[in-house]
Amino acid sequence: MAITFFGYGSLVNAATLGRDVELVPGRLSGWVRAWRVCGTSSAGRGVCVLTVHRRAGAQIEGALARQPADRLPALLQREHKYDPIPGIGAAFRADGTGEPGPEDSFLFQVKDRYARWGDADHPIYQSYLDCVLAGYFGTFGWDGVRRFLETTEGWHVPVLPDRENPLYARAVTLTAELREGIDDVLAEHGVRYLQQR
User: InterPro entries per the record (predicted)?
Assistant: First the structure.
């Protein structure tokens, strides 16, 4: 038995998923990505992360991840601020083949009590954003990173530059080239930063 879910943020980065994962890059129709999940991180401070919401005509890139079903409890614990939304397989198309996802594919959408835009007290951690963009770069290249920025709502939410002392529990190590490239793309997009406190 296996589970299949659509990743649109950190779940696109295989390094955060552990063993026995198969990723299928593609596009999901009818959904849009947004910086609209606020809560407290394991580091004990406010944070804003990604969710999706329905929108007719919209399309986002991501990846279908397939794992053994015994990994589901750990996944649900990781995504405890989200509800699993089933039945999204028909809206997915795999890159290269155009195949839809399995009928039982699902995605994670924020629970109502966490659903609001980030702010200075709930910023985007750069360590989280680095993880997400490293996954998109590895899967879709620089064009994919730029499309991620263009198809994500909420860039008014500031970024906390915690790269040197990561607050994100699943932070990844970037090469110097990738770090510089990410910084350049974020600067092109006008992303603003908070001062560390």
Answer: GGCT-like
Q: Which amino acid is at 145?
A: V
Q: State phi, psi for 94 to the nearest 5 degrees.
A: -70, 140
Non-local (6+) Cβ contacts of 49 within 8 A are: 9, 10, 35, 37, 39, 81, 124, 128
Q: Record the pTM.
A: 0.95
**Token representation of residue 174:** 């970037």
Within the chain, where are the H helices?
Answer: 72-78, 126-150, 176-189
Give how far Cα 176 sits from Cα of 10, 26, 75, 156, 183, Å: 20, 28, 31, 27, 11
CA distances to 10, 76, 161, 192 from 188, rounded to whole Å, are 22, 35, 17, 11
Asked if residue 91 lies in contact with residue 28, where contact means CB atoms within 8 angstroms, the answer is yes
Where do the domains of the chain lie, and which CATH numbers do they carry? 2-189 (3.10.490.10)
The whole-angstrom separation of Cα 30 and Cα 58 is 5
